[in-house]
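cron nightly-structures :: item 1 of 1
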Amino acid sequence: MHHSDPFSTLDNPAWWALTSMQQQFATGPQNAKRYQRGVLPFAALETATTENLLTLHTLFEPGELFYLIGELPPLPPGVQLLKELPCVQMVLQEATALPAGTEPITPLNASHSDDMLHLINKVQPGYYEKDTRRLGNYAGIWQGNELVAIAGERMRLDHLTEISAICTDPAYTGRKYAQYLIAHLCNANLQMGNTPFLHVLETNERAIRLYEYLGFTTRRTISFWQLVSSL
């Protein structure tokens, strides 16, 4: 590991999350881990070898989709690549000076899990499962009884917290709700000595501009690989 780079664990973020701060959510032997089913469809290899991927594949049922982040080894039989999602990985190193929004920000908990699932699946389906909220703190903005914006914490490594599930109901966009929620979570993490990071699709220029406005800088481009365990 390059000690000159304080964020080198972010080259293999799921691995360092699953073997440190989130090991209670991990399943798998020493060289290959996955998040428990229902928590997150992410998996990781200690090193990107075909042999380790073969081990990982035994942790998935036939037809089960999962994501690897970073280096992808040559695929063994039984693992099929569906798509590559090139992302920009960004970090925030100082508090974001965003004026407070007028809407109250509410911590979300187990009693809100159906509302959370409904909103996220409406806006960006595929990465969030019923128990994903157990990975970190989630915050939301409500209009009446309806949850209309959300942001939360997903992968957590030593002194690093991924900001994720940033969603606003299409009927409520343009009100800066996402900005307020991201700033709220980021500043709370920075106060605790954790550096916030996030992943955004390279093609999502609007989101990248928002994160830059909030003070995030690009660390690198990194791919999420969507794989399926075949028969």
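cron nightly-structures :: done
The CA atoms of residues 73 and 225 lie 11 Å apart.
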